[in-house]
Specification:
It is built from two helices and two strands, in the order H-E-E-H. The chain is an alpha+beta fold. The protein has a two-stranded parallel sheet.
Length: 69
């Protein structure tokens, strides 16, 4: 992403990334320095093949997970 940013910046282009809400690799902390904007993908609590039914991001799930993002 650093290389992409270095290439884009002289052209006036932006680096925009969609990042997972609960990134298990912990790389989310290093992404902002390489990006102009981040879009937090704060969903996927439940999905079509999930074992239980529910919303894609309930308020409680969102509030519990936000501090870890």
């Amino acid at each position: 992403m650093q290389e992409l940013g270095a290439t884009f910046k002289p052209r006036g282009w932006l680096v925009v990334q969609a990042v997972p809400f609960d990134d298990p690799t912990g790389t989310i902390a290093t992404i902002p320095s390489a990006s102009d904007y981040l879009m937090l993908m704060a969903y996927d609590e439940h999905w079509s093949t999930h074992a239980e039914l529910g919303s894609v991001a309930s308020q409680g799930w969102y509030e519990r997970n936000l501090p870890a993002a």
